[in-house]
Design a protein that fits this description.
Layout (H helix, E strand, L loop, with lengths): L3 H14 L12 H18 L4 H18 L5 H18 L1
Helix pairs in contact: 1-2, 3-4
């Protein structure tokens, strides 16, 4: 059985390799299916964690990454939010 730390590490790896522009691809394009499956993998991994603070922080980190990629926040705001959320995750893990 995977530890919470292993699950967090895997979820972060999935998030970092995720194609954030997948929704712009034609649904018949393999990139669409791959990115959708990665998103589902992230959701399923996070759902296996038994700590509400970690779950919320990981979900908020996913949203922050989306906002950064789609120019809804600047890099400095994202880095500050990322540091805050990673601190929560590290303390709770």
């Amino acid at each position: 059985m995977a530890t919470t730390t292993n699950i967090i590490e895997t979820a972060l790896q999935v998030m970092n390799r995720h194609d954030w522009y997948w929704c712009m691809a034609n649904y018949t394009n393999p990139a669409y299916g791959n990115a959708y499956n990665e998103m589902r993998t992230f959701v399923e991994l996070v759902a296996t964690i038994n700590n509400a603070a970690i779950i919320k922080a990981l979900r908020d980190l996913w949203i922050a990454k989306y906002q950064l990629v789609h120019n809804r926040c600047n890099k400095e705001s994202f880095l500050a939010k990322e540091a805050e959320l990673m601190n929560i995750i590290n303390q709770a893990a």
